[in-house]
UniProtKB/TrEMBL annotation:
Residues 6-183 form the NAD(P)-binding domain. This is NAD(P)H-binding protein. SUPFAM superfamilies: NAD(P)-binding Rossmann-fold domains. It comes from the Bacteria. Coiled coil: none annotated. It comes from Streptosporangium vulgare. Pfam families: NAD_binding_10.
Length: 285
């Protein structure tokens, strides 16, 4: 059985959809915090298991001996390490065959502040003795959806990354990678460094937004403090705004520019081009 945690989230649903195209539905389980939100998956033949990262007693029942588990990282930045450890401990107690984890690009060496919890989660998985697959995902292009929409509305995309480049890929690309890893024959421990085929800059994002929308959009590079204030003024909680503002400084230093080609190799096709993602963002708005 392949068990997908966080299966009703944005990435999780795409992974389940992909699995159902590759394996019988009775070989897929969705481990979710709220089973009621997974009724549509149950209707497609997926087994639903309650699994709340904050309630270890549910995790104890979520896994079975021989399962392959995809641990989709929690979005509770700052407290997700404890959540991840609880999942890993429950999986080890159940005797699962393999655990795959959605980590971050170059988790062991990246300067990104948000990598600390991923790095510690990887260490806990290694210590558990469970055979593992680390899906070290780079940046999701969809992270910039708000920036694209802001650019169309106000004529400018704000940031503090200068000419730094981002080798992003779409959420669907990363989901396809998870499906490939979960359904392939993995032998031993495996680490994938996953990112888009082409790195782009925020000025290029503005140019693509302008080309797709037909409206003038420019990139406005700000000092770090001004960018942070703009994010807070846009409604982001200060800790989240600080995280994103700091990430732009890391982008300026090349932290998310690596293009090893492992993602396209794993999914067997090129990653989604920036223009295609921008088009989808504007279409869905």
């Amino acid at each position: 059985m392949i068990v997908v945690t966080g299966a009703t989230g944005q990435l999780g649903r795409l992974v389940v959809d992909g699995l159902l195209e590759s394996v019988p539905a009775d070989q897929v389980a969705a481990a979710v915090r709220n089973p009621g939100k997974a009724a549509d998956l149950a209707a497609r033949g997926v087994e639903i298991r309650e699994a709340d990262y904050d309630r270890p007693e549910t995790l104890e029942r979520a896994f079975a001996t021989g399962d392959t588990v995809l641990l989709i990282s929690s979005d509770a930045v700052g407290r997700r390490l404890g959540q991840h450890r609880a999942v890993v401990d429950a999986a080890r107690a159940a005797g699962v065959a393999r655990i795959a984890y959605t980590s971050v690009l170059h988790a062991d060496t990246t300067p990104l502040g948000l990598a600390a919890e991923h790095r510690s989660t990887e260490e806990h998985i290694r210590a558990s003795g469970i055979p593992f697959t680390f899906l070290r995902n780079g940046w999701y292009t969809e992270v910039y959806a708000a920036s694209v929409l802001q650019g169309v509305e106000h004529g400018a995309i704000l940031g503090a990354a200068g000419e730094g480049r981002v080798a992003s890929a779409s959420r669907a690309d990363y989901a396809a990678a998870a499906v490939a890893a979960l359904t392939g024959e993995e032998d031993g421990d495996k680490i994938y460094e996953l990112s888009g085929d082409t790195a782009w800059s925020l000025p290029e994002l503005a140019a693509e937004t302008s080309a797709v929308s037909g409206r003038p959009v420019v990139y406005r590079d700000l000092p770090h403090a001004d960018h942070l204030r703009a994010l807070i003024d846009a409604g982001l909680p200060e800790p989240v705004a600080t995280m994103y503002a700091d990430i732009d400084l890391d982008i300026a230093q090349g932290a998310l520019s690596h293009t090893p080609g492992e993602l396209s190799a794993l999914i067997g096709r090129p990653t989604t081009p920036l223009r295609e993602s921008v088009t989808a963002i504007l279409k869905e708005a």
